[in-house]
Automatic annotation (TrEMBL):
Pfam families: Fer4_21. The lineage of its organism: Bacteria, Fusobacteriati, Fusobacteriota, Fusobacteriia, Fusobacteriales. Residues 1-30, 31-58 form the 4Fe-4S ferredoxin-type domain. It comes from the Bacteria. This is 4Fe-4S binding protein. InterPro entries: 4Fe4S_Fe-S-bd (IPR017896), 4Fe4S_Fe_S_CS (IPR017900).
Amino acid sequence: MARRIDIEKCIGCGKCEQSCIVGCISNNENGKRIIDENACVDCGACQLVCPIKCIDNF
């Protein structure tokens, strides 16, 4: 199961994007981060670095 970002809570810091080992995290039109769930390998690196803990297996 891929990780998902709660974009209502995301502050757009980019730490998750920097930590992603497969490059599946990008910005949406509002500067929030989104995960390409088809490319996510569910390693959890993004979830570990998120300062507000808005990433999970929703």
